[in-house]
Inverse folding.
């Protein structure tokens, strides 16, 4: 019971932290959008999230919340980052797709991945 509360608090804190990071990335990328230049992909934001996911994996956070929850949380983060902050799903998930069983092209959950892409995204 106590462990469950601690775990819930932990996951909540983690989400708050990730929201902060995504907000930070947003504030970094906004000036380039406002200048009206070409909307280049937010590479630094993507690489930063890639490193953050690496930390979550290295520190056993993903193992603690389990594969299904990890896929759910990471998919939501990548969706927000790419949809709102112009990050690149392939860059964010590079090196993470195989253990997450997650296609970076369409976020399908599958073990049939080649270079991070599922069968239908490859064809
Ligand atoms: Zn796919």
């Amino acid at each position: 019971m106590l462990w469950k509360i601690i775990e819930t608090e932990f996951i909540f804190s983690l989400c708050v932290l990730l929201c902060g990071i995504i907000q930070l990335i947003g504030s970094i990328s906004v000036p380039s959008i406002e200048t009206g230049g070409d909307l280049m992909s937010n590479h630094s934001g993507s690489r930063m999230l890639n490193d953050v996911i690496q930390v979550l994996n290295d520190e056993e956070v993903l193992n603690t919340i389990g594969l299904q929850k990890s896929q759910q949380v990471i998919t939501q983060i990548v969706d927000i980052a790419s949809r709102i902050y112009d990050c690149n799903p392939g860059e964010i998930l590079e090196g993470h797709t195989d253990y997450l069983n997650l296609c970076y092209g369409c976020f399908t959950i599958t073990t049939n991945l080649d270079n991070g892409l599922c069968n239908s995204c490859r064809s």
Notes: The first helix runs from residue 2 to 34. The two ends are 48 Å apart (CA to CA). Helices lie at 2-34, 43-58, 61-65, 67-84, 89-93, 97-100, 119-122. The chain has seven helices and no strands.
